[in-house]
Amino acid sequence: MKEITAAFTNENPGVNVMLEAAGSVECARKITELKKPCDIMASADYTIIDKLLIPKFADWNIRFASNEMAIVFTEKSRRSNEINQDNWYRIMLDQNIQIGRADPNSDPCGYRAVLVSKLAEKYYKKSTLADQLLIKNKNNIRPKETDLIALLETGNVDYIFLYRSVAEQHHLSYILLPDEINLKNPTYFTLYQSVSVEINGKTPTEKITQKGEPMVYGITIPKEAPNKLVATAFLKFLLTQDKGMEIMELLGQPSVVPSATESYDRLPEELKPFASETKK
To answer: Could you read off the pLDDT of 58-70 as tens digits, one per residue?
Structure first.
């Protein structure tokens, strides 16, 4: 988003874009609970917009990017010379190894770490693997995935559950996981749906059951956005193949053909050419 913002303001020098990063669930709550002014809400999980913002706070949702979960580390990480796609979970369970993950109630990366652990349990046929992984790293939970990078780079943790794109953008080493685990491949939609985790909902007492599914990002302009005209121009830039989408691809963030969820008819007319109508 920093790179896309820089390119957008280069084309529109009179615009000042203020970025505010947080976990996607937390961002949604800033709109729904704190009533914080917001022109664009981008989520690392498009379903957060569907579940927490639509219909009261937003009318529509455009899916625009994908990703995958990976095991991320540095050369300082203990046993980093041994870890591979086959033994990663055994090394992470070593009593001398510290692992970290994001908070499931704040950040999709956090609940995706839980889902990945549960899928790994199925894939490797290890009946208690998920519980072992999740209990082991409970002291290294942080509000969002980028908070974990500091712990990793200082050596306070050895491995973290993180998006492949973030690892590439920060020049970190990573292990790719099998498609049956990494939440990347739409072919495994049914398998991903077989695991779930409960996270906080719209109110402090409400719970949402978050099922696994292929990783897709979403973006919207809230109903009460104070600068809808400029926000729309930004989204057009973001969704243009040789502009925003190209920047994302170059930084390891795979784009998808932009498509609206069950909200295409509610898209502003000027955005419809930038998104196709696609059902879940």
So the answer is: 999 999 998 999 9
Backbone angles phi, psi at 185, to 5 degrees: -95, 115
Q: Provide the residue ranges of all domains of the chain, joining segments of one domain with +.
A: 2-66+216-277, 69-198
Residue 45's SS3 state is coil
Whole-number Cα distances in Å, 194 to 12, 221, 280: 46, 32, 17
What is the DSSP code string of 177-194?
PPTTTSS--GGGHHHHHT
Return the CATH number of the domain spanning residue range 2-66+216-277: 3.40.190.10
The amino acid at residue 80 is S
pTM: 0.79
Which 3 state secondary structure label does DSSP give 55?
A: coil
144: which 2 tokens?
Answer: 């969002």
The CATH code that applies to domain 69-198 is 3.40.190.10
Contact present, 137 and 101 (Cβ < 8 Å): yes
**Is residue 159 within 8 Å of 72, Cβ to Cβ?**
yes
Return the structure tokens found at 227: 């600068």
